[in-house]
Each structure stands twice: as C-alpha cells, then as structure tokens.
Amino acid sequence: MLRLESLSCGYGSVRAVQDVSFELAARSSLALLGPNGAGKTSTIMAIMGHTTIHGGRILFEGQDITHLPPIGRVDLGIALVPEGRRLFSDLSVEENLTVGGYRRSMADDRRNRERVYSLFPRLSERRKQVSGSLSGGEQQMLAMGRALMAEPKLLLIDELSLGLMPKMVDLCFDALTALKADGVTILLVEQNTSRALGFTDHVCIMTSGSLAFTGASADAQGNDELFDVFVNSPH
Predict the structure, then answer these.
(1) Rounded to 5 degrees, what angle do the CA atoms 182, 183, 185 make?
(2) Of 13, 1, 14, nearest in space to 58 by CA
(3) Where are the domains of the chain?
(4) Cα 153–159–163 angle (5° rounding)?
(5) pTM of the predicted model, to two decimals?
(6) CA angle 131-175-1, nearest 5°?
(7) Would you give the DSSP letter of residue 222?
(8) What are 183-199's pLDDT values in tens digits?
(9) pLDDT tens-digit map of 79-93
C-alpha cells in the first residue's frame, strides 16, 4: 500500500531525513521507532505532504504522491493523528468530528460518526463538550476519531501514548486493534517500544535521520542490544 523509495525530506533547506526506504502492505501495521530527533515525525509528515522533499519518491497504492498536496492524500485515503493532538480546542467534540469528515458526504459523515462513537463511547457521552476541556486521554480519542472521519485506508499516528495514563493507553490500543481487524493499515510512531512492538507486524528503527534497522516486530522484541543503541540512545 505504501512505499518510500530513498526518501530525503526536511523543512526548507534543512534536511531531517536522508535516503529512507521501506514499504507497508495493506492491512498490516508498522512501528517507526527511534530516539528524539531521529526523523520519525518528519517521515510521517512527508507521507502526509507537510515537508519539503529533497529526493526520492512516496508511492501509495502504486500512485506517485511525492508532490501531491495534503488534501489530495486525504482524498486517496491517508489520515494523520498528529503528535500533541492539535484539536480545535474551542470547538465541541461533534464539531471536531465534522471538520475531520468535511470531504465526505452527509451519509458518510453519519456512518463514520457512529463508528467513532462505537469505538469511543466516552466521546459519545461528551458530544457537546468543548474539546479543550477534555482529559488528555479523551483528547487523544478525539484526535483519532477526527482522523477516522476521513475513512482512511492508511492511518498515521504520531506518539499515541505520550502523556497518557496507562488505562487510557490501553483504551487507545484497544481501538487500534479493532481498526486493524477492520482492515485499516497503520503506521505508528510510539515512545512506548514494548507496546508498539506488541501491536505491530513490522518495525523500522531510525537514528540521525536514517534507517538503522528494518524487520519483524517479533524479532526486534528480544534484541536488547538493538534497543540500547538505537532506541534508548540519548542522541
């Protein structure tokens, strides 16, 4: 479904990612791991169309989307749950969901809204509540729900568990498990390496803007040396 070919990207003239290649099959999941500053978020933002491309290609379902505007990628079936949630804090839960589904028909909107409320009953209870007054976990659920309103085939998630209580982390991963069972392809950037590897099929580990390891998540789980060098490194 997704293929990165020697991707180099950054912000203006600043290059954050250099020569990264990997692919993600439909209905599978991949964890993108590494220390702070490794280029994980920049890679996800490149897939979404929010960085300067310095080289390489991004293919989605065989189509070259390297220079496609972000809205075109949403229409193709790619959605992002950004780090920090980035909700419209002065809008209600319902209004944030409306923003997420604005490219869809009214019938699609109703169906997708019910899907979100089924995944996250707590959001249904807080439909009229201003999103800025929600707890951190509820805001993360809403950020996920807003992305799902676009009916993504590929869901990009940047730091799912950051700042959340363990119970909320469990609820969010439960939702991801349900989405995966429904056939949604998932690319996950996550600081909680054990949860990420326990959930995903494949893993890419980045350091200093480049790929350092690619393989099966199950194989990476038992590789302590790999994680000491590439994930737990302070650089």
Answers:
(1) 130
(2) 1
(3) 2-77+152-230, 89-150
(4) 140
(5) 0.92
(6) 105
(7) T
(8) 999 999 998 888 999 99
(9) 999 987 788 888 999
Residues 6 or more apart in contact with residue 67 via CB below 8 angstroms: 53
Give me the amino acid identity at 213.
F
The amino acid occupying position 70 is P
Dist. CA 48–CA 162, nearest whole Å: 21
Q: What does the block give as tokens for 78?
A: 């790619």
| 2-77+152-230 topology per CATH | Rossmann fold (3.40.50)
Task: Spell out the residues 6+ positions from residue 155 whose beta carbon is closer than 8 angstroms to its own.
Answer: 79, 81, 147, 148, 179, 184, 185, 186, 187
Backbone angles phi, psi at 150, to 5 degrees: -85, 5
Residue 1, both tokens: 């479904």
- Location of structure tokens 């993360």: 140
